[in-house]
Amino acid sequence: MTKKYFGTDGIRGRVGRHPITPQFIMHLGYSAGKVLAAADWHLLEGKRPTVLIGKDTRVSGYMLESALEAGLCAAGVDVLLSGPMPTPAIAYLIRALRLQAGIVISASHNLFEDNGVKFFSADGCKLPDDMEHHIESLLDAPIETMPSEKLGKVQRLKDATGRYIEFCKSSFPYHLDLRGLKIVVDCAHGATYHIAGHVLHELGADVVTIGVQPNGLNINFECGSTHCATLQKAVKHHHADLGIAFDGDGDRVMMVDKQGRLYEGDQLIYIIAKHRQQRKILTGGVVGTLMTNLAIENHFKELNIPFLRANVGDRYVLELLHKQGWHLGGENSGHIICMDKHTTGDGIISALQVLYALRDTQKTLAELVRGVSLYPQALINVKIPKSFNFNTNKAIKAIREAAETDLNGKGRVLIRASGTESVIRVMVEGESKHKVNHWTERIAETVQIASSS
Q1: Which value, to the nearest 10 degrees, does the dihedral of the CA atoms of residues 436, 438, 439, 445 take?
Q2: Which of 109, 125, 351, 440 gives the lowest tally of CB atoms within 10 Å of its CB?
């Protein structure tokens, strides 16, 4: 059954346009509250369910936070407010405080004009599909406010930052530290701005922070994991050993070495997996996605590390990890999941796993990926009407078949609909950069024409 509002990562859109309006978000909070209030598993000693709300640094977060508060309280649910916190911090705090759910107000790596809402269940994982369907089923019903004596109450969670900093530090081995390393940290003017630098500093690193002056409008703007050129320049300027970039809500990470070379998610996952295999602490294999570079899959084969691909989106990576009983997976975007450390993707904790490999082996990032040459990839996003179905289009099918024939088994073609935007993502990879660029442009052009006709 198709969901009307929930995508692969909650509900997201342009602020002020349906559904990211205060009216809708208040109703969403109320509907979510009613679903929680109806669940038997949280009714402990007659207490009301409690939901934690966190947000990133977008100016619209204030408005949406207030709307969610009102809806949840009207449904009889108590609310805790953490203020700006990384998405994975909310997932951790739900479990640490034994709460019934958590909500994060964020549009992740998007610019400030967008925002969104994503939910976590009591176990710190994304809500299952059936609960999202249940919430959506209540959105058309009117809000019926609980009697005054049953309304929810709101409190500030004052020690959220300190709790999460200690949690992140606990994921790094106690017998190691980061003394002697100079690290530039780019927080994208986002939710890690008051956390990431402290974690690394308290582990012994000499830390230079950039992207730590959020004003509500500058989140992800020419900084962070979606614009690593800023970090690359800063690493060279400060003569640092390496750089770490996060996205606006702190669940993605990219890294840069002292020469300014960029290491994306696929390479970081490779470093973690190989190191864990060497230390005999790799559980099973690795889950990537349809976008994972083919070269990484081939190198895992050489190492005898099992590898599986999930659909794009962290929830699908998590589902496959749970099914296989494995711990490590992620995406080239830098969304890396280490399930032995956390229930969800966490940029800071993922960075610490890479730093563990660096300190334990006394090698550089370049040395840890030596011999791993990624295949050229090209990606074009094509805007489409929401009603367009590319799967049934004959012209798109024909151009795809032509590209795959030309690549002759030495590359891949991926055409997929985004789970968060009205776009078709066209990706081609292969040994020949010329062929990759040629077919990406040809397929994207065909998608554009087909969706316009």
Answers
A1: 140
A2: 125
Strands in 151-258 per DSSP E: 154-156, 182-186, 206-210, 242-246, 253-257
Rounded CA-CA distance 98/50 in Å is: 9
Q: Distance between CA atoms of 359 and 268, rounded to whole angstroms?
A: 15
- Cα dist from 275 to 36, 64, 202, 313, 352, whole Å: 41, 42, 24, 25, 13
Copy the structure tokens of residue 10: 């909650």
Residues with a known catalytic role: 108
Burial of residue 150, with CB atoms counted within 10 A of its CB: 0-12 exposed, 13-18 middle, 19 or more buried:
exposed
Alpha-carbon distances, residue 78 vs 36, 49, 150, 157, 416 (angstroms): 11, 6, 10, 12, 40
Cα–Cα distance for residue pair 162/85, rounded to 1 Å: 11
* C-alpha–C-alpha distance, residues 357 and 368, integer Å: 8
Asked if residue 19 has a cis previous peptide bond (ω within 30° of 0), the answer is: yes
Residue 18's alpha-carbon distances to 22, 25, 105, 201, in angstroms, are: 9, 9, 16, 42
Lowest mean pLDDT among 67-76, 119-128, 390-399, 415-424: 415-424
Tokens found for residue 357: 């490999």
Structure-block tokens of residue 18:
């349906």
CA dist 237 and 226 (Å) reads 20
Average pLDDT over residues 141-149: 95
Question: In the numeric block, which tokens belong to residue 415?
Answer: 């055409």
Closest CA to 262 of 246, 244, 248: 244
Contact 380, 426 (CB under 8 A): yes
- Backbone φ and ψ of 130, nearest 5°: -65, -35
Q: What is the pLDDT of residues 163-219, one digit of tens each?
A: 999 999 999 999 999 999 999 999 999 999 999 999 999 999 999 999 999 999 999
Task: Compute the distance between CA of residue 8 and CA of residue 127 in angstroms, rounded to an integer.
Answer: 11
Q: Tell me the sheet residues that pair with 53.
A: 81, 103
* Distance (Å, whole) CA 136 – CA 305: 40
